[in-house]
Structures are given as structure tokens and as C-alpha cells.
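in:
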């Protein structure tokens, strides 16, 4: 039962990060605002960085899905644990950039907590 819950959470996390990555590619202004930092996306170099983030998010989600399909439960747990650094760093970046605390803690902080719960469920099996 714990593994099933862990797999469902891991799948939701993977799907969400793929969707977020896609949003950075197709709607960078909206995606950046949702992240908590609103750069000037009319500048080509900034759009390029947002595209890089989008591609990396999509790839991160695919890594988790591939490991899930392979049935590598513990490996999924360890990868999710390592990837928890991302939302923690995102929260710090938002706070240091003067972004909304509600996004830093509510979006990125909550994501980190869910990821820690997910890896605990997967590694407890």
C-alpha cells in the first residue's frame, strides 16, 4: 500500500514537472510568474534561459517516469530525494529575488515536503 501511494505521488510529481516545463516553453511569462520571479521575457536572452529551464524540467520528469516504468522503486525514491534540492533551491531563489513568500513557501516549499514524503514511502518498502 505504501509503495502504491509513493508511486502515485512520484507519478504526479513527474507529470507536474513535465507540464511546468512545457509551460516554460509555450507560455514563459505565465510560467515565470508562477515560479515567483517575473523577468522581462521580451529580452531574447531571458527567454532562452526560460526555455532551458523548461527543457530541463521536462527531462527531470521523464527520468522519474522511466525509473517508475522499470519498476526501480528504491531508485525512484533516491532520485526523488536528490531532486528535492530543486524546489528548496527554487524557494531560496524566489526569496532572494524579492519574489512572493507565498510562492516560495506555498509552491516550492510544499513541493519539497511532498517530495520528501514520496521518497520516504518509496524507500520504506
Amino acid at each position: 500500500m505504501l509503495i502504491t501511494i509513493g508511486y502515485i505521488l512520484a507519478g504526479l510529481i513527474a507529470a507536474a514537472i513535465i507540464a511546468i516545463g512545457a509551460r516554460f516553453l509555450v507560455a514563459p511569462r505565465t510560467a515565470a510568474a508562477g515560479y515567483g520571479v517575473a523577468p522581462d521575457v521580451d529580452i531574447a536572452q531571458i527567454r532562452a534561459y526560460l526555455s532551458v529551464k523548461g527543457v530541463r524540467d521536462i527531462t527531470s520528469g521523464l527520468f522519474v517516469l522511466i525509473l517508475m516504468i522499470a519498476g526501480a522503486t528504491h531508485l525512484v525514491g533516491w532520485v526523488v530525494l536528490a531532486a528535492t534540492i530543486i524546489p528548496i533551491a527554487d524557494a531560496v531563489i524566489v526569496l532572494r529575488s524579492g519574489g512572493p513568500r507565498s510562492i516560495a513557501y506555498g509552491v516550492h516549499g510544499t513541493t519539497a515536503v511532498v517530495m520528501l514524503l514520496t521518497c520516504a514511502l518509496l524507500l520504506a518498502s
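note: Helices lie at 2-26, 28-35, 44-69, 73-83, 85-96, 101-123.
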